[in-house]
Design goal:
The protein has 204 residues and is an alpha/beta fold. It has one domain: Vaccinia Virus protein VP39 (Rossmann fold, 3-Layer(aba) Sandwich). The protein has 8 helices and 7 strands. About 4% of the residues have low confidence.
Length: 204
């Protein structure tokens, strides 16, 4: 928890890398951005979802904490570090890659990484397509583009059996509700009126 608070302070108060977020977002950075960033962590370790279908198969992908050891997770368009920094703090056993082409954002993330002592995080200052990252267990993004466009970018770098994880407003992905290839986890955030969704798709 201390590192999550420290990261929030760095984003809101550090100005030498430009205004990383708007003044309005600064006021609710913990309740909006940090909380949202931790949704994938809750989802993949949620014991309540360990239900089996009629064939005895787990209905959705759920991981034990021990399963995450040495997994590789890349975040596309990491920006100022959400969701990848909160996830790296919550899951120190996972190797994270924050992929972002904008120089000032890259400089900030390297600064924050050193300040927080995150040894399981590597900042990659490139576009995801030219990052050279392959054979990844997880790829995430948050409000980057459409689900379809994000999946198209991510899929070639996912290993077989890997998982694509994205955070969207629910309205932007409601058309996927009947798509058997995706799982949708609808949720709300504190003090926010709209619904949000975590959408996953496995690489078969």
């Amino acid at each position: 928890m201390d590192k999550l608070y420290d990261f929030a302070d760095l984003v809101v108060e550090t100005k030498q890398f430009g205004n990383l977020i708007s003044a309005k977002d600064s006021e609710k950075f913990l309740s909006r951005h940090i909380a949202d960033s931790l949704v994938p962590y809750i989802y993949i370790l949620d014991e309540r979802r360990k239900t089996k279908d009629e064939r005895g198969v787990l209905s959705s992908i759920v991981y034990q904490r021990s399963d995450l050891s040495s997994k590789k997770w890349a975040d596309m368009g990491a920006g100022a570090g959400c969701p990848v920094f909160p996830l790296a703090i919550a899951m120190p056993e996972v190797q994270f890659y924050a992929v972002e082409p904008r120089h000032m954002r890259v400089e900030f993330m390297n600064y924050a990484k050193e300040k927080l002592g995150l040894k399981n995080l590597t900042v990659v200052g490139k576009r995801f397509e030219t990052s050279g990252l392959t054979d990844l267990d997880f790829i995430s993004c948050r409000a980057l583009s459409t689900f379809e466009n994000d999946w198209e970018r991510a899929q070639p770098a996912l290993k077989k059996g890997g998982l694509f994880v994205t955070l969207k407003s629910f309205n932007s992905i409601s058309h996927l509700e009947n798509d058997p290839a995706v799982n949708i986890w609808k949720y709300k955030l504190p003090n926010e009126e709209q619904d949000y969704a975590l959408v996953t798709r496995g690489n078969k």
